Amino acid sequence: MRLKDIGEFGLIKRFQGKIKTDSSVVRGSGDDCAVLKLDKNNYQLFTCDMIIAGTDFKSTDDPALVGRKALAVSISDICACGGTPKYAVVSLGLSPNMLVTRVDRLAKGMFELAKKYRINIVGGDISSADKLIIDVSMLGVVEKDKLCLRSGAKPGDIIMVTGSLGSSIKGKHLKFEPRLKEARFLVNNFKINSMIDVSDGLLQDLGHILEQSSSGAVIYEKLIPLSREARGVDDALSSGEEFELLFTASRDQASRIINSSKYRFTPIGEIMPKAFGLRTINAEACTGRSFKTGYQHF
Amino acid sequence: MRLKDIGEFGLIKRFQGKIKTDSSVVRGSGDDCAVLKLDKNNYQLFTCDMIIAGTDFKSTDDPALVGRKALAVSISDICACGGTPKYAVVSLGLSPNMLVTRVDRLAKGMFELAKKYRINIVGGDISSADKLIIDVSMLGVVEKDKLCLRSGAKPGDIIMVTGSLGSSIKGKHLKFEPRLKEARFLVNNFKINSMIDVSDGLLQDLGHILEQSSSGAVIYEKLIPLSREARGVDDALSSGEEFELLFTASRDQASRIINSSKYRFTPIGEIMPKAFGLRTINAEACTGRSFKTGYQHF
Fold first, then answer.
1. Where are the domains of chain B?
2. SS3 of B253, please?
3. Which of A54, A128, A237, B270 is most exposed, with minimal Cβ within 10 Å?
4. Per-residue pLDDT tens over the stretch A50-100
């Protein structure tokens, strides 16, 4: 049996069943970040993301954008938990034949984003590799009462999303702005029941919330905010690496959020009891497809 | 100009000049771990290490040993700063064609070592890759007064090493035991002025201490504890990935350490003023070579 036979999520489940953690771990594997006890009022968030040439970007992509992306995906994970990013360490796999000017551009893209988000890059590791590999591990902090997990969605919650969906493949995955301002605005002013960033695809990431929250959901396709580059709603439903925030809140909170008009928050559906499953209602108002699509590494 | 023209350390210096950190960072890039403010009595340690098939291990090596090594190298970094490892996140680059049984063995080797050292594996990331890649980021904690850095060596300090050197290539790099007990014994009972783990090679790692401490050193080749597998002193001087601890303490502390007889600590030389440079005295007591050898990735 090979990895492609059990799939990425099959493998993750296989690992999770074998891992034990002690009482200092509030949330281990299975969310956007690990959540660790820090002090009286705060939790520490800890996450890692690896990107590899040929898998997560093209070898011909501008190294400045690649370096930027490596950091941005981890920032997005911290945002999804409601926190503020603080520190990062960076492991690089580099070819000895790589042009120094390209590495300089990579560093420039990364360091500029770090500066913008006030992240301290505090260490790293360099190894020799055939292809460019970047792994970023990030630490963040979140007030205990502002922590957002995948597991808190409740039937009746309104499902909302930031920005628009469907343009990852058109370059958004290299240029997206992590939704830190939006996330902090949400957790500072409202009660957010669950949150995740759209990295695998809207339906698949919603599926992660539903699984962890033991819930179902209905999504109204016509409500999904499409990017100009999206060819149709299917792109928006399945496109990974959008790095928008997908979150749920009670009907009352949702109406306050949508009326706040500070950022673009769009309601797209509702959390349902588990038995309902996950269904989308299409534009013709037919009871829609119940399907799951999105990105798996294998 | 290509990376191989400026070398691994040239690249690291290039990065370090561009990085700024805020006052919460006690020590950023340039030591075995980053050191971050945590609470009144403790610092947090943060480190990452990436290992890649073909560079850091062979594709034919037992995956259990490879998984073990991935975690052990980061534990060793925490030890070198005098701390205790606590949490790890793991990024994996895996081929879709990899046998599930091999991934299971990899996880087994890693999880067993995590259990032994009471490390919580709290998250991870999986990506598709041609070759096996493992990146481990680790958090540890160290009491403020027990923190060891590369920068604290003082002329007159005795240079000491744990265990024996020269057998990395014979398999030690896959099977070594991180020197956590030894490191904690040292920082709990003595004043250690500087410490590093031997990952690049004895002389090169000593060179890191000397550079950060603005000092020189003399090493007596005959005093270096050789592994049975070492072919001679050159192996011991240059062999990377030994993961022994190289540390310095005042003459008085050193004599107490050596007389403690609890673990194998061997004095091998003395810290000198910077103008002395780094010299080794060979077995015939000639004033020896002043050279630098060890591993660079390019």
1. 3-145, 148-281
2. helix
3. A54
4. 999 999 999 999 999 999 999 999 999 999 999 999 999 999 999 999 999
Calculate how close chain A gets to B68, using CA atoms only, in Å.
15
* B235-283 pLDDT per residue, tens: 899 999 999 999 999 999 999 999 998 899 999 999 999 999 999 998 6
Neighbours of A136 (CB within 10 A): 33
Locate B267 and state its tokens: 């004095």
Q: How confident is the model at residue A268 (pLDDT cuts 50, 70, 90)?
A: very high
What letter would DSSP give residue A2?
B
Interval B51-75 mean pLDDT: 96
Contacts of B23 (CB under 8 A, 6+ apart): none
SS3 assignment, position A44: strand
Q: Where are the beta strands (DSSP E) in chain A?
A: 25-27, 34-37, 42-52, 84-94, 120-128, 133-143, 158-162, 194-197, 215-220, 245-249, 265-273, 278-281
The pLDDT of residue A126 is: 94
Q: Yes or no: say if A266 and A225 are a contact pair by the CB < 8 Å rule.
A: yes
Q: Which positions ≥6 away from A282 have C-beta within 8 Å? A: A221, A222, A233, A288, A289
Q: What does the pLDDT read at residue A144?
A: 98
Lowest mean pLDDT among A106-120, B96-110, B272-286: B272-286
- In this prediction, residue A259 has a pLDDT band, given cuts at 50, 70 and 90, of very high
Cβ partners under 8 Å of residue A181, min gap 6: A263
Residues of chain B found within 8 Å of residue A3, distances taken between Cβ atoms: 94-100, 103
CA distance B118 to chain A (A): 9
What residues are paired with B91 via a beta bridge? B125, B135
A16 vs B: CB within 8 A: no
CA A284 to chain centre: 30
The token duo for A154 is 């409740």
The CATH fold of domain A148-281: Phosphoribosyl-aminoimidazole Synthetase; Chain A, domain 2 (3.90.650)
A94: β partners:
A128
Report whether CATH 3.40.50.720 matches the domain B3-145. Answer: no
| CA-based nearest residue in chain A for residue B44 | A38
- What is the predicted pLDDT for the residue at A282? 84
Contacts with A86 from chain B: Cβ below 8 Å: 24
Alpha carbon distance B122, A82 (integer Å): 18
Q: What number of residues does chain B have?
A: 298
| Backbone angle region of B214, left / alpha / beta, with phi > 0 → left and psi within -120 to 50 → alpha | left
Q: Mean pLDDT of all residues in chain A?
A: 94
